[in-house]
Structures are given as C-alpha cells and as structure tokens.
Amino acid sequence: xxxxxxxxxxxxxxPDSYWVKSEEEGVQMTFDERQQVKTIFLHVxxxxxxxxxxxxxxDIDIFSTKNEAAAYASKNHITxxxxxxxxxxxxxxxxxxxxxxxxxxxxxxNIM
Length: 112
What we know:
Layout: E1 2-6, E2 17-22, E3 27-31, E4 37-42, H1 66-75, E5 79-87, E6 90-98, E7 103-107
Antiparallel strand pairs: 1-2, 2-3, 3-4, 5-6, 6-7
C-alpha cells in the first residue's frame, strides 16, 4: 500500500498524520500522530481511480440511499446526524451513525 506521511513542516504544532491507500482494493485509511487508525474509507463504487472494495464476505451493511440507512438506524436505535456536502464534485446527502466508540459515515451515491 502507498503511504503518505504529513508532518508539521511549518512547526505550527499540527499533529503528524499518515494516509495509506490501495486503489486496487478500494480502501484508504488515516492514522494519527500515534499511528492509530482514525478513519477507514471503503469505496463501494468505482470512483477517483479506486476500484470497489470487495465487501461480500464482510459484516458491513451497504445501503442504496440515505433514507434506507436512516430507516435501518431508526429500527436499530442508532443515533444519527445528517446533512449535505460536495463529494467527488457533486452535492450529496450524507448520514452518520454515531456509536460510543466509532462513527460510520456514508453518502447517497445515487447509484440506483
């Protein structure tokens, strides 16, 4: 995997961070200054040079729309936040599942 190291070049007390990515596997990860995983990006469709991650044998739920994800969260008593943001040059709806130890963030890719 390709590793990108971002350090405080300007000596502004900004924490170091690391990016690891595999376009072939459809995954990107960020690490903090202690080299602990902070974020995992799983690409579920081909975009920006990334192949879709193979999630067929995982326990990760994939939703076709934000509304479908919101209904799942409601049924399973998961707290959410929602909004809109530009992603890959397109304004998209997003939803975040808020768990005690981690969050799951997804966007409506309009793939249907």
